[in-house]
Amino acid sequence: MKLLITGGAGFIGSAVVRHVIRTTDWSVANVDKLTYAGNLESLAEARTSNRHRHFPVDICDRTAIDAIFREVRPDAVLHLAAESHVDRSIDGAAPFIQTNVVGTWTMLEAALAWWRTLDAEARQRFRFQHISTDEVFGSLGATGKFTEQTAYAPNSPYSASKAGSDHLVRAWHHTHGLPVLTTNCSNNYGPYHFPEKLIPLIVIRALRGERLPVYGKGENVRDWLHVEDHAEALSLVLQKGRPGETYNVGGDSEQRNIDVVRGICRLLDELQPASPHRPHERLIEFVTDRPGHDARYAIDASKIRDELGWRPRHSFEAGLRKTVQWFIHNPLWWERVMSGAYRGERLGLAHE
């Protein structure tokens, strides 16, 4: 199979590329313009594979995308390219609208044009797989979970832009017949995670002995999914999913933010016994909450489990330990990232 993967140098995208190169004989055309969160080093051994090729192209550049389709002749598109950080979307929504909405529209138009050139058998096989988020559903109360039938109610500029892209994908299927698949995932974590997100930010700041900022009282709840489990799910949906369907992908691992932070601190106390910053919990500092901070997300992943047979392999406890160990053992990766456009500063305060 020949894959065209957008955003393949990002956190989830690079995990998908690594998974494909390690476990299949498929080829990957990796379209990623390398924004601040894109990093070719995250591809690990896939970077030097003769089945992987990087195209430093903006997904909004229709001419360049059309040329890639003609050159690569993909059997499927996995569309992961997106601006993804809620706090950044609060500070400035324009890049989110451009990449997540206009970029998705551009990819759909290019894929549709390519699909229409294929013979009947190739058209039947082709897939456009769109990777989205549970944040499009808004916020849950104390009970219940998001299902594939949950109404959309995005509460941040980021989630609104992703909701818009989801609707475009659905429309291109129902209007034009393009064979699409959509997945909505819960919060990912794991190796190569860009350090503006909660888990890597806390690990790195704790390793440095810096204050550990926790929004509000830390009571917001997220359902955590190890990125390698997510990559496996996406591969399975691509191969077995039914065109036009959506699949929720969750880790069945609900955790309060404060419990995640304390768990990281306990792991670092154990794994870094000589650290002068022990006990690391003393570094925790509660800060002003994010504007419009959703209280709770939780995914009902029974559809992908029952129909496709997918289950996450990592418990949150095992996955978090594995992740903390990875950051301890790979300081060169995150030190280079932190020396660039992002240095751990507070984003998303919103301006009065």
Description of the molecule:
- With 352 residues, the chain is of the alpha/beta class.
- It has a domain at 2-190 and 227-253 and 294-314: Rossmann fold (3-Layer(aba) Sandwich), CATH 3.40.50.720.
- Helix content is 42%, strand content 16%.
- The chain contains twelve helices and twelve strands.
- The strands form three sheets. The protein has a seven-stranded parallel beta sheet with strand order 3-2-1-4-5-6-10, sandwiched between helices. It has a three-stranded mixed beta sheet with strand order 7-9-11. Strands 8-12 form a two-stranded parallel ribbon.
- The longest helix has 23 residues, at 94-116.
- The N and C termini lie far apart (51 Å).
CATH class membership of the domain at 2-190 and 227-253 and 294-314? Alpha Beta
Strand content: 15-25%
Indicate the CATH topology of the domain at 2-190 and 227-253 and 294-314: Rossmann fold
Radius of gyration: 20 Å
Beta strands, count: 12
CATH superfamily of the domain at 2-190 and 227-253 and 294-314: NAD(P)-binding Rossmann-like Domain
By CATH, the architecture of the domain at 2-190 and 227-253 and 294-314 is named 3-Layer(aba) Sandwich
What is the succession of H and E elements?
A: EHEEHEHHHEHEEHEEHEEHEHHH
Largest sheet: 7 strands, parallel
What would you call the shape? globular
